[in-house]
Amino acid sequence: MPRFDDADFGVEAAPAEPSPRDTSRDAVPGSISIPSDPNAQGDVIEVPATRSSISDASQYMHNLSLSPSMKDRRGSRNSFGTSLPIPRSPRPSRLSSVVTADGARAGAVPGAVSRDILASQIQDMSKEKVKAAKNMAFVFDIDGVLAHGNELIPEAREALKMLNGDNELGIKIPYLLLTNGGGKTEAARTQQLSEILGVPISTDQFIQSHTPMRALAEYYETVLVMGGEGFKCREVAENYGFKNVVHPKDILAWDPTISPWRCFTPEERAEARVRDYSKMKFDAILVFADSRDYATDMQLIMDLLLAEDGKLLTRAKDPVSSRIPIYFSQGDLVFPTDHKGPPRLTQGAFRIGVEAMYKAITGVDLERVVYGKPELATYKYADEVMRGWMEQIHNESRLPDNVYMVGDNPASDIIGGNMYGWNTCLVRTGVFQGKEGENDPNSPANFGVFDNVLEAVKAAVRKELGEDFKFKWNPKVNPVLHGEGMSAVE
Length: 490
Ligand code: G3P
Ligand code: MG
Known about the structure:
The protein has helices spanning about 5-10, 55-60, 70-75, 110-125, 125-135, 155-165, 185-195, 230-240, 250-255, 265-270, 295-305, 345-360, 375-395, 410-420, 455-465, and strands spanning about 45-50, 85, 135-140, 145-150, 150, 175-180, 205, 220-225, 245, 285, 325-330, 335, 345, 370, 400-405, 425, 450.
């Protein structure tokens, strides 16, 4: 059970009937808090922020520590009245897909029917193990656990195959992929991951850092969306239902001089939508992924934060009171990649830069909202997705009691999982590089530290299903001889 509950954070039950949402920023003068009209919560849940909404820049200007301790994070939770809306239910099923490793949609596989019959006979004779299997689930981080960039971490494939039914019961154990990564649509990324991992990944078991930010489309109409390759984040935001999505390159195409050090190719110009952006009133800035052009993105963020009422080419007399809100999809400072040296800087570092600039220019701390692990809203959204996935896998729309988060970053995966009441497993294949026998001193994994994801999965399954559990399906198993305490593999 989550250690936090709604009462702990003052979440109020939403009314049954949706009603039109107030998108006017006049409803929230001088604050990044979402309009909180209690009649306007039909399709979303507003989850109070657990991280401070105030800039971290001052802290990092004097202290280069990259891992705020659990104590510091806990101290900041729920203290600023900001809420992070998340969708009340997972994404519409029209966006769902299950793809196979070779890109085809999953369907009947030759031989699967007889295997399913055999597996169900085995499961009928192993009721206790089946009950335990249906009461557990995994949540996997991606970068540093399953892959490094586009390179598979080899043990990941075996772990996922085992959870997909390659085990003595032939039973599926549900798992979600919960990443702070992003920058492309859920469908595109799951397709890519299916190919890298060699197992089918469905959008219904997949959460990127910006996935819960779909709920913000209920609040903001015209948004500047940043990060990621090319114009892919524009497509993401349009899929989420934002009505008027502008990308920095659209603005560059209109006025290249707006960013003196721009990176802008003729191909990008061809894809850009040129409009008179001086006439547009932006409602919010959404950073969905890592910036590919820091100079332009930081310039446009500053321009809009300092503008009068979200209008480019203007400067507000009082930038704080007329400032439009800015949202970041996640706060990781570094992440593991296929680079052979230390982890690389990511969106959190970009955000610290923005905050420092804002403070230097205005003298005040920037208020902003950060989604992604370890933010509570992201874990609550994971529960919504988990319920739906449990229904697809086990035909039971409920949360399992034993959830195991496997992550490589103590400051996001592990601290968040610990606070949410999950079992946490820290692996040594990513950001955390502790030696044998060491745990993270600030955010220790409560279930343990493992060499890789396969070791973590095996330990968790053995704990729930028994030390003798076999991590391989035996197609020659005889159900008559198989039962509690009997092995399916000779
Ligand atoms: O940019 C950081 C992000 O890529 C980390 O992803 O999967 O480790 O949460 P993940
Ligand atoms: Mg990671």
